[in-house]
Amino acid sequence: MSKFFPIQKTNLDSKMSQSVKFWDKIADKYSRQPIADEASYQKKLKVTQDYFKPDMKVLEFGCGTGSTALIHAPHVQHIRAIDFSSEMIEIAKGKAEAQDISNVTFEQLTIEELEVEDCSYDAVLGLNILHLLANKEEVITKVYKMLKPGAIFVTSTVCLGDKMKWFKIIAPIGRFFGLMPLVKVFTTKGLSDSLINTGFAIDYHWQPSNSQGVFKGIFIVAKKSK
């Protein structure tokens, strides 16, 4: 198997640095926030765990403070969980220690910096992260290569292009004043097309119902062709 080297990061470093500062700053507050839609979250956990097997090796990128990785830990052999925020990772490590969970490894690392052999993982989780990347297409391709044949990519993604195209206008202003991280606007169809064009088959597709004015992300389990 060939080594898969990092994605080219031209023009990404300044945007990424600003996003890192944003997430580091809010990490503690973020970790204490309740789940906005507990029922939908529990359904996503259950659907994901239905694909898991005890011998699976899993990667989660953009793991945040680690809650989801720690919940999934009993269902797989090992989870490597990465995030570019050092503050998020420190909180995640503290949770793992407090819960005495040893089969999850937390690392401060970006998906762009990650180097793994092709066909290394049985599952990759990218939850609430693809719309926060400047290079979504390259990351999807990288994920495809690191998955074994028949393995899965699980993603929950806010597709702002479906309902909030105007967000393209205010997002740069919010970034300029440090009020928000990088946020990309694309549609559910655009995301599905990106996955399919890379070689994935959409195995599961679910859109939680929007309520109380909250626009919810699309949940997809994509399978790598054998």
Written description of the protein model:
- The chain is 38% helix and 23% strand.
- It has 226 residues and is of the alpha/beta class.
- It has one domain: Vaccinia Virus protein VP39 (Rossmann fold), CATH 3.40.50.
- The strands form 2 sheets. A 7-stranded mixed β-sheet has the order 4-3-2-6-7-9-8, sandwiched between helices.
- The radius of gyration is 17 Å and the shape is globular.
- The protein starts with a strand and ends with a strand.
- The model is unreliable at 1-12 and 169-179 (pLDDT under 50).
Sequence of strands across the biggest β-sheet: 4-3-2-6-7-9-8
Order of secondary-structure elements: EHHEHEHEEEHEHHEE
CATH class placement:
Alpha Beta
Question: Tally the helices: what do you get?
Answer: 7
Helix content: 25-40%
Low-confidence parts:
1-12, 169-179
Using only C-alpha atoms, the radius of gyration works out to: 17 Å
End-to-end gap: 16 Å
Largest sheet composition: 7 strands, mixed
Please give a quick description of this structure:
The chain is of the alpha/beta class.
Write the layout of secondary structure elements.
Layout: E1 3-4, H1 13-32, H2 38-51, E2 57-61, H3 67-72, E3 78-83, H4 86-98, E4 104-108, E5 116-117, E6 121-127, H5 136-146, E7 147-157, H6 167-176, H7 188-198, E8 200-206, E9 218-224
Parallel strand pairs: 2-3, 2-6, 3-4, 6-7
Antiparallel strand pairs: 1-5, 7-9, 8-9
Helix pairs in contact: 1-4
Keywords, please?
alpha/beta, 226 residues, 9 strands, seven-stranded mixed sheet, Rossmann fold, two-stranded antiparallel ribbon, 7 helices
